[in-house]
Amino acid sequence: MGIIDEAGLVRKGEELDQEKVVEFLNDSIPGLKGEIEIKQFPGGFSNLTYLVKSGDYEMVLRRPPFGKKARTAHDMSREYRILKALKPQFPCAPEVLVYSEDESVMGAPFYVMERVKGIILRKTIPDGVSISPSDAGRLCENLVSLHSKLHKVDYIAAGLENFGKPEGYVFRQVDGWSKRYIAARTPDAPDFEKVMQWLHDKIQKDSSNPGVIHGDYKFDNVVLNPENPLEIIGVLDWEMATIGDPLMDLGSSLAYWVNRDDPQNLQMIKQLCTTEEGMLSRKEIIKLYGDMSGVNVENFDFYYCFGLFRLAVIAQQIYYRFFHGQTADKRFAMLIHAVKILESTALDLIEKSEI
Q1: N or C terminus: fewer CB in 10 A for the chain?
Q2: For the whole model, what pTM was predicted?
């Protein structure tokens, strides 16, 4: 296996109409040369991502998952417009090429962007990629620095002032994700009542400096330069991006961050390589972000607890589809265990919190 993510065969049930897609691309993107080949990137629980090759030129096609919820739950237009507006001020945003709502092509809206080709870190550092403990620390610093830079983008100058409502953002997030969890709860899921009540009781004031927030900023959504793995050259998966409170964004990111000394139950649901030697801890990440951004992080327990809860809701929503037979993807069956572990982690945080 190489150090660059490779696409493979398209999964059964997620095939595209090759003839229609090729016709659309040739009509919409000037200068394509050579036969067009379509493959699919593995993994992911949300939008589907395909590799489209025209000769040596590589593009990525993003579309919602198949199924009855696709059109309402996955806004391709919004993701495309955010990226198009953000690219001039945030170079790590991918270059988008074309968007379409023509359902005759594949039955759903979709967009195409240039491929940002590089290394993506997941559970472990890939063979062939050398990252020493000191390098790991610097990579964490670069990750946090880029996150802070995103939050400082002048979103009004970028034309994104209508992509979110900073006023009341924190309350709407807590209230909205609470309602989503209740709607997606299955008989085997924990109730999360204490966590939801604590978040409502401890609501923090809206940020005085709202910004562009990614919504899913983590190692497997950033692309590293193959020639210098400490350099981040791209940020992917902007479907949850909006204008809001940067600390809510950081809290959501750190919900994925497992420390080397975390309890065994958290280690079991680790998805990223954050336990590698030299990687910063959550506490170190929080302090570093505060130092870089100038934002007060002293009440961060609230934001981290929100991140854990939000991640649990996302996992539960996906598990709900499996539980009710809306998908046969067996990966989703295990998500109920993650939901329970995330509730346990949030309850432990609440018990120890001093805010």
Answers
A1: N
A2: 0.94
